[in-house]
């Protein structure tokens, strides 16, 4: 804002009045950013650990059948998430919270499976007890807390501080990380600031159902495409040379979530955190689920949610690079060991930039196969 304009608006006392574009008023100083927010809280991480998180498998800790399956899913799912929010009815909220405390205490999650939770929304009557109970009782077992319906960086700042206070109170040894769900138009408009709001930020997921409702999109599906969202080929010319509007014309269904996912991926990449596609509600349509997951994988997401055991395998398949891509990446690395110059491989140009693309694939393949002998074997034979 210019000084004249600031004066005209009656804020002439502040010659450098903070404009809306200047977000620094939301931020702590760079030097304080990695200091604990409470005396006795663990020191924040400077880098988000890149642990395999191809699927975040949701279970309802108040559902005895689902809860009983958790120990068998250790080592099968990269992430197990005890859900306390939507899909858990109001009179089961406490049972879900207590169920999760018990599961966290009694289950050995091993080295490769993380335990996450999704807490109730910040305006709900349950969230304060969710945080207090979980962090002080099982804070050292919980890797990530997923926060629903995040509207802006102020929501993350609130969580950041209260987590530090509770970690200090519970003697938690390492900081619990935070994952935001993008499910409101305001959250979407603030996604870059949300991604950078705290060193605890681990990642962001798309929440397609709440987001669709909040935006007044007209799909009633939980994620996935829509046959009405399409482009149609031009009409062919009729016998008289005029367009034949009545003739058959192929249509191409488009991805309803393309803009949202792409923007979320950029926000996450710019802040060194991880983007995830969210849920795919049509459990029986495993084919379309795989397609949606793959679109997200290709655009940069590292994983998706699994709502039903059948979706774990889909995510594992999609979010692990294919043997073919790994083999190609290796060939490029062999042809250009230091990643410089330009060469031809199978009639295609490879250079410094495509070498980097190959490194993304190889690094992911290495990280995943370190935990998964089957995958390691597949890549070895590729
Ligand atoms: C879809 C439902 C109702 C079908 O449940 P079902 O019982 O009808 O399915 P089934 O095929 O008959 O189940 C077979 C067996 O698998 C078990 N089972 C089934 N699911 C699971 C599971 N997740 N984890 C572990 N076990 C599971 C189930 O208990 C059963 O066990 P049994 O053989 O012993 O009888 C059920 O799978 C379910 O409740 N899934 C989780 C739903 C959920 O968490 N929703 C919230 C996330 S999506 C969301 O919130 C939106 C978002 C982001 O916020 C936004 O876009 O805005
Ligand atoms: Mg939701």
UniProtKB/TrEMBL annotation:
The protein's required cofactors: Mg(2+)
Database matches in InterPro entries: Aldolase/citrate-lyase_domain, Citrate_lyase_beta/mcl1/mcl2, Pyrv/PenolPyrv_kinase-like_dom, Pyrv_kinase-like_dom_sf
Positions annotated to bind Mg(2+): 183, 210
Swiss-Prot/TrEMBL keywords: Lyase, Magnesium, Metal-binding
Protein name in UniProt: Malyl-CoA/(S)-citramalyl-CoA lyase
Any single GO BP term: oxaloacetate metabolic process
Pfam families: HpcH_HpaI (PF03328)
Gene Ontology MF, one: (S)-citramalyl-CoA lyase activity
Organism: Janibacter cremeus
Domain HpcH/HpaI aldolase/citrate lyase stretches: 55-221
EC number: 4.1.3.24, 4.1.3.25
N-terminal signal peptide: none
